[in-house]
Amino acid sequence: MKKEIKSKKEYHENKVAIYNLMNKGEKNLTKTELKILTTMSIAAENYEETVVGLNHPYQTK
């Protein structure tokens, strides 16, 4: 599953969903939720790098 964020509104909604999952606690997430969290996190990072101009120095590509 690949997700692409195309607008600032989608980015905000994505971040809210990420925070909601994170607030549940990693041990309380299902395998499906973990996959969704990973996909949304990657999409947010891609948006931040390409649109916002943030650099994630810890990320290796």
Task: Chart the SSEs and their pairings.
Layout lengths: L7 H17 L6 H22 L9
Helix pairs in contact: 1-2
- Our count of helices gives 2
- Pairing-aware structural class of the strands and helices? mainly alpha
Separation of the first and last Cα atoms: 19 Å
Number of strands: 0
The unreliable regions are none
- Work out the helicity level: 55-70%
Q: Strand percentage, roughly?
A: under 5%
pLDDT averaged over residues: 87
Rg measurement, Å: 12 Å
Shape: elongated
One letter per element, helices H and strands E, the order comes to HH
Largest sheet: none
**Tally of discrete structural domains:** 1
Notable characteristics:
61 residues; mainly alpha; 2 helices; 0% strand
